[in-house]
Amino acid sequence: MQSPIKLTPALFSELDTDGSGTISAAELRAALGKLGDTAAVNNIMDRADVNGDGELTYDEYSRLMNMDKFGDAQGGNILVRQAIKAGLLKPDTVLGYTAMVGNKGFDPLGLAGEGADETKLNGYREAEIKHGRLAMLAALGWPVAELLQPIISSALNQPDLLVSDAAGVPAERVPSLLNGGLDQISPAFFAIGIVFSAAIELLALQWGAKVDAGEYQPGDLGFDPLGLYRGKSEAVRYDYRLKELNNGRLAMVAITWYAFEEFVTGRSVLENAGIAN
Question: What is the pTM for the complete model shown?
Answer without folding.
Answer: 0.84
